[in-house]
Design a protein that fits this description.
This protein is an alpha/beta fold. It folds into 4 domains: 3-196, no CATH class; 228-277, no CATH class; 281-468, Sandwich (Immunoglobulin-like); 478-534, no CATH class. Helix content is 10%, strand content 24%. The strands form 9 sheets. A 6-stranded mixed beta sheet has the order 6-5-2-1-9-10, with no helix packed on it. Strands 22-21-18-17-25-26 form a 6-stranded mixed beta sheet, with no helix packed on it. A 4-stranded antiparallel beta sheet has the order 4-3-7-8, with no helix packed on it.
Length: 534
């Protein structure tokens, strides 16, 4: 009889005794118990190494009366999330519920995997991360718990990250945390799964100077890899993708390391000569033009946008970014970075949460006023009382509002409205002025870049305006605008060529027959119309 057979015989022999004293039962049911909790690091990665091992203490005619729940991150129970299939199992049967049976068969090797009488495919609910508690249910009631459902297991005695927990004589035992990392099968690890009988010949790397040396290997399989030391921190500027062993303090994080500079980077350990001590050293080539919090028909965040103008040509807009200081809570730093693109001096740039909604709300003629429309991320979520910061290379170059003040009731509030810069000064639509509108033309506060006089008969008619902003001057009155003409119309605003010529007047300073004095204006008028004094 093999060691494995002896072990299974032993466990089957104690099942009845153990069932009599188990304290976590419901309705007298203890026919199924947790045996192993698994979070292996397998070559295929992802969730393929996650599984649960259970043992039937008695014959069970319908396994579907049982289920599993995973209490993630110490957040308390999530209830039953997985239900076993309706199958019959016998006393002593080992049941293996795995996210990837293929990956587990390969990792445990066929000899070990074949000892499970019932390998079952798991749902995504079996997604424990090595620090999550597990609950076993019978008829929707918890009958056994591994770990603590209200506790994140990281650093706890029962943590099993990239490892396993296994019950021996009713007590939980554990592999070392991370003991399966970088292994091709359980016997390459320093913690073979206890269910698996160690084979006489264990293939692996037997060179103790190699990166993947396997102290359990008895037969070298030619898989040894040389140690390649380098920076393995993906966020470092000198990250080495080929390295398999982390170096000591070799990772470089470039940036300004002078804490007196405007762009000091506390995380940088290597100075890259980028320090800036005066904002005038920056280009300041972009400015805030408008802050928008429209109430649009689709609701939500669809009406939120920020309007910028390029003060000068910008070869790479990604040097600039935006931050929203929510609720007067101070700066959150740069939360949005512009894409790498070139813009020209004078270009209008609209950064909108939902560009297609803005196109509909502003109407095509106004929307077309923006040379560049960009889709914003969720950080652009100002609520009409939030300050806005414009950054260049991580340095604030302009601020709208006050970052430490909630703007509700402040002069710069723009709730369901807008703020717009005119000659360097901020102007505002009335608070809530876009509520209940279908388009900006319906609002009592037309966005300035959209508005103008839409009356074609008005003196200041703007053919490019998409909405009337109430600025129309008096309508054009056609008539003779020359005061010295006999048919001069004092109400005319546009000369229509109807002026009548005075046929004969006295020369400058003389009286004519009508007693009129020929003035310089009159003489000019006469010269225009081909008359002269007599």
């Amino acid at each position: 009889m093999t060691y494995l057979q002896l072990e299974k015989t032993f466990f089957r022999g104690i099942c009845t005794a153990f069932a009599a004293i188990i304290s976590v039962t419901a309705f007298g049911q203890n026919d199924l118990m947790l045996q192993g909790i698994i979070d292996f690091s397998v070559p295929s990665a992802g969730s393929d190494g996650k599984a649960l091992h259970l043992v039937a203490n008695s014959d069970i005619t319908d396994l579907s009366t049982y289920g599993i729940g995973v209490a993630n991150n110490g957040g308390g129970t999530d209830g039953q999330e997985y239900t076993f299939p309706a199958i019959a199992v016998s006393a002593g049967d080992d049941i293996f519920v795995a996210r990837s049976l293929d990956a587990m068969a390969s990792y445990l090797l066929e000899g070990c995997f074949a000892t499970f009488e019932h390998p079952l495919d798991a749902t995504s609910a079996i997604g424990q991360n090595g620090d999550d508690a597990i609950e076993l249910y019978y008829q929707d009631a918890v009958i056994e718990t591994f770990g603590e459902v209200d506790t994140d297991g990281t650093g706890e005695d029962w943590e099993y990250t990239d490892s396993w927990a296994y019950k021996v004589e009713g007590a939980w035992t554990y592999g070392t945390v991370n003991c399966t990392d970088g292994t091709a099968n359980t016997f390459e690890s320093s913690c073979p799964y206890p269910m698996c009988e160690v084979p006489e010949d264990i293939p692996g790397c037997t060179d103790d100077s190699a990166f993947n040396y396997n102290p359990n290997a008895t037969v070298d399989d030619g898989s040894c890899e040389a140690v390649l030391e380098g920076c393995t921190d993906f966020g470092a500027d000198n990250y080495d993708a080929a390295a398999n062993t982390a170096c000591t303090d070799c990772c470089e994080f470039l940036g300004c390391t002078d804490d007196t500079a405007l762009n000091y980077d506390a995380e940088a350990n290597t100075d890259d000569d980028s320090c800036i001590f005066d904002s005038s050293e920056l280009s300041n080539a972009l400015m805030l033009q408008g802050i928008i919090d429209f109430t649009v028909p689709s609701g939500g965040s669809d009406g939120k946008a920020i309007h910028f103008v390029a003060v000068a040509d910008i070869a790479d807009l990604s040097a600039f970014g935006v931050g929203v200081a929510n609720n007067g809570g101070g700066t959150d730093g740069q939360e949005y970075e512009f894409p790498a693109m070139a813009v020209n001096a004078g270009d209008n740039i609209l950064l909108a949460r939902t560009p297609e909604v803005m196109e509909s709300y502003l109407a095509t003629s106004c929307y077309g006023s923006f040379e560049h429309v960009l889709a914003a991320n969720t950080a652009i979520s100002q609520n009409g009382d939030d300050a806005i910061e414009l950054f260049e290379t991580g340095i604030v170059i302009e601020t709208f509002g006050e970052i430490d003040v909630d703007g509700s009731g402040e002069p710069w509030e723009y709730m369901d409205s807008w703020a717009y810069k005119v000659n360097g000064e901020w102007t505002y639509g009335e608070v809530n002025c876009t509520d209940g509108t279908e388009t900006i033309a319906d609002a009592s506060c037309v966005y300035p870049i959209c508005g103008g006089c839409t009356d074609p008969f008005a003196q200041n008619y703007d053919p490019m305006a998409s909405a009337d902003d109430g600025s129309c001057a008096d309508s054009i009155v056609f008539g003779c605008t020359y005061e010295v003409a006999t048919n001069y119309n004092s109400e005319a605003t546009q000369d229509d060529g109807s002026c009548e010529v005075v046929t004969a007047v006295a020369c400058l300073g003389d009286l004519d027959d009508d007693g009129l004095i020929a003035t310089p204006d009159l003489l000019f008028f006469l010269s225009v119309f081909g008359s002269s004094c007599e």
